[in-house]
Amino acid sequence: MGLWEEHIRKVVPYVPGEQPQGDRVIKLNTNENPYPPAPGVIKALREMNPELLRRYPDPSACQLKETLAGYCHLGTDNIFVGVGSDDVLGMAFLTFFNSGKPILFPDVTYSFYPVWADLFGIPYETVKVTGAFEILPEDYRRECGGIVFPNPNAPTGICLPLSQVEDIVRQNQDVVVIVDEAYIDFGGESARNLIHRYENLLVVQTFSKSRSMAGMRIGYAMGSRKLIKAMEDVKYSYNSYTMNYASIVLGAAAVRDDQYFKETVGKIIETRERAKGKFAGLGFSGTDSRTNFLFVSHERVPAAEIFRALRERQIYVRYFPVPRLDQYLRVTVGTDDEMEEMFGFLETYLDS
Amino acid sequence: MGLWEEHIRKVVPYVPGEQPQGDRVIKLNTNENPYPPAPGVIKALREMNPELLRRYPDPSACQLKETLAGYCHLGTDNIFVGVGSDDVLGMAFLTFFNSGKPILFPDVTYSFYPVWADLFGIPYETVKVTGAFEILPEDYRRECGGIVFPNPNAPTGICLPLSQVEDIVRQNQDVVVIVDEAYIDFGGESARNLIHRYENLLVVQTFSKSRSMAGMRIGYAMGSRKLIKAMEDVKYSYNSYTMNYASIVLGAAAVRDDQYFKETVGKIIETRERAKGKFAGLGFSGTDSRTNFLFVSHERVPAAEIFRALRERQIYVRYFPVPRLDQYLRVTVGTDDEMEEMFGFLETYLDS
Questions:
Q1: What's this model's pTM, rounded to 2 decimal places?
Q2: Whole-angstrom distance, CA of residue B17 vs CA of residue B319
Q3: Least CA distance to B86: which residue of chain A?
Q4: What ipTM was reported for this prediction?
Q5: Residues B121-142: what's their mean pLDDT?
Q6: Do B233 and A13 count as a contact with CB atoms less than 8 A apart?
Q7: Does position A19 have pLDDT exceeding 90, yes or no?
């Protein structure tokens, strides 16, 4: 072993969901949108001028920021864009969580939070959710180095009302509070309007779920000018040009095509609500998800067994073999046809 | 001022080169390639299936890695890809430079190195280049936490012969040595074949210069399996999906179109060599650049004045108002027409 190996940064890397290939696969395991990107995005792709690729992209990604700013009724200096919301969240951890005090996040939540904390040497404490997986704002009234939580939460799908999000922000004005709204478009109320009242609030969203653009890697944060400026400074100290030309152009086109966005999000919500009834009819119970996935547990059959049975049938869902979650499956809301096929299989399987 | 502001990471961000807009602008300031991307890239863009954008891209960017591995006669596990070579270099700093001892790099070099060191709290010492801007391998024989240097160096364009690069690597096998070969395709000899002999050598290259794809943000590193695995672990701890679908597909297409690559690189080298003669004829002296830029100083007129005069004429070159460099201009090699226009102006200007 070379001496240089002693000084490698030690990490336990995040393991992304499986990406099975094949035409017969039904992929309900990574919360992708079952519908293609908006017609406006496809048109923008077809019209993209490849000559421009020889040039550096606009480091400030103005076109994308301006379109988002118009859509969200914010200034461009209230918006930070990055390579998916993971890049945005990682950059926010690096920028804001330097006090030496532990940051707080729920014990059942997005599994990347402890990974970033470990990577950047940020101490953290997890806060227990209730037996019904609920986040209680009063549990976040304590000294800390910062707070981050998803709303709706993952993998539970439970959404806090805006008043409770505001309660957490208001009680913690000495630290930065990050609300990770990856799934907010599927039925929650965004905290983004609160950024005018709370300088310490950062709201993070993504194009990967509701905008059908996981493949383009576009995420963004909204916050006070001071917060955004601090993140921009750190970003420019790491990589000035994070957003490539294609993601800037296609991202802006996605935001402009608002009708398609509303239609497809509406369809996913309808499919989800029908799926809740069907799961219940098959003996599953679950949370009242406000996301594009369901979080369900069967009254009789262990989740691990159902997971394997589905997988053999080429139907992929997500199973987390960890305490508290190991009786649950996280099932992405697919098209009606995909859901029919899954429910058809489950009916026969659970009946046998 | 909120208390939270006290714990923002303090940085002095890197300032990227100006990106002036307009049809009449001659842009010789950011070392972009004057030729469009390869026909194979344009074809791949036209044939891209937008439906696939709804899915997450392959987190390991296999298609791109395999194409690069074939081209470089390496294994895919010898290759790391990132969002431009800045992302790759930043990730390498974060992964390898954790010993607490100062890392070394030349005092005249790429201005991002001290920025990453500051961002990640890595101590560093700069090593003086000679009066003729040369890097001397013997200056790097000392205890340190790691070494990074560009070859050819920026903004001087001077290229070390491979034997001297190997000397630096051989003398420092207890630390990771990063050779930043952003400009190697324009006339230097890559150190990439040395990775089989030196486990501690990381060679970084980019698609932004010789492959005309600055707009797509693609960089890569080549190294021993151990080095690459360590970087992958850190990358998966920050952002699993850094390369978007378009960059994977178009990047692979660029590598496959080798004939176009060789033709355009050959043209740039020819233009550069002619430009050296013309600059000399106008009273400039400079380094023997092996890159796609020239580094020149006029015998009589201060560089800052020439810079401003060119700029008024909408011809943008790069000027660094810092000690040792402030008598030089860095001029990107453009098309023959662009260079003619610049030389035409300089002739009149210097004559007056």
A1: 0.96
A2: 10
A3: A239
A4: 0.95
A5: 97
A6: yes
A7: no
